[in-house]
């Protein structure tokens, strides 16, 4: 074989083929990389030969997610691991197709292909011959009562093997020469599939030594029932979801289903809600609703005839306060529906609140459903959710996720009736968060009063106003901007935000003499300056002669609340549902120009305002204000009790 079939470490391998070292890459044992059709048949023979004894292969696929798909192939690199630990990597992009020999291997029902979740979805419809013998590792994990769902989680639990985050390898699979870390990731992933298969076989047959006979016995006894398992919707959902077809709202079928949904809501007072917006010119609203009883409705709202929407049972569902609508980040959709149809969605509840109440870091709807919905629950949520194409997955997944969190909270274990149990959960844990994020985005997080301060006199007046605000709420949002291409000099802009929505953009580069009033506020230890990476900004201002005391990084508050800290952009999106786009065209722009443009002003104001709002958000998570009459006393209590060890003087 030529160098196109690159085998590494110069050791004899199967069928007498010698390994060849990959140029400029670290050697990896027992790996063949196939890039040429001439080498393909020989590589396939290696795999077929290894399957004669054990009849099983580990399989893993990787593709470049940063570039559009131009070829009819599911993966850029497809890796196979044999039972004895030999790995063949097929670079399908360079081969331009899935060769006939590989299709025959994939279609061989006598060879079990062990894979991780998501592989089957990528392969669907991409081969001329049907891929058979597929075995999802998650199904094997369930045989031994295991809950991990990803290859990384399974490897960590059962192999004590730490695979890198897959997000690190979303690009780079189309390079002429793969980087060593990409090769190692693909090899380790394929090997982990086969090693996990062995591990589960050993656990299922604890008294037997694994050999050719016992492995095949394990396949027959424990794996056969899971081979090529189809992830279908449950009968209950299929009854109301007609092949992903959205019904017209005015149709009799829609009205009958709305009646059924209301009947279900009268019993359990909760409904799953999701909304997509079609890519047509009118941005048609496509709604998905689902009840705990399994009744689902996919409905298309009319773009022009508002009266139709106003005169249907959908309006009753939306406006009833006693029906909680659960979903994920629905506030913008609710706002659009109100603007277009004049219908306000009351009792809207973001499931991220329940995730936090249960002590979990909120992530995407897909990940939360896959993690928390009970394995006996509806298959559409626990498995098919990874393919979220059908709108019913969003709504059904949302309502099942609510139910899973409700059971975790376990408000009153003595309540036997589910309807009463659900009502109790809503009353105790959810009602206080109705429409909370919607209000925060539309009201609290819009800077009410942006002041651009260019001279000393303006600065004195604004500082007096900020000082009076701090008497009521002794915390201000704090941030700085600097012209990145300036060779010398200090900070160009100082942003301060108060609880009353005042955002002062103080152009230090234009103020010749810094007023005493500004220095006094920045030095005042009783006024806490909050934001992200504020300690570094305070140090930079100190170099300019403006000394800053009592800075608090809101990331430390996130940690105290049990969340992961991140950048301001990530945290504002996760916890406030408010976007902050850190575009380099803005962050690296000229902050010393004669007049700031609208994008600079908006970004700078939000940078300080969001830092303050994150402080307020985390403060309420640490402890609600139930006893302090003055808000200033409540804030000082929070700072003293929870934040004193994180405050710095610079």
How would you portray this structure in words?
This protein has 27 helices and 19 strands. The protein has 650 residues and is α/β, with parallel strands linked by helices. The protein has three domains: 5-226, Nucleotidyltransferase, domain 5, CATH 3.30.420.10; 235-439, Nucleotidyltransferase, domain 5, CATH 3.30.420; 445-646, Ribonuclease H-like superfamily/Ribonuclease H (Nucleotidyltransferase, domain 5), CATH 3.30.420. The strands form three sheets. It has a seven-stranded mixed β-sheet. A six-stranded mixed β-sheet has the order 8-11-10-9-12-13, with helices on both faces. Strands 14-17-16-15-18-19 form a six-stranded mixed β-sheet, sandwiched between helices. Helix 4 links the parallel strand 6 and strand 7 (134-136). Helix 5 (137-143) packs parallel to helix 7 (180-204) and helix 6 packs across helix 7. It is globular.
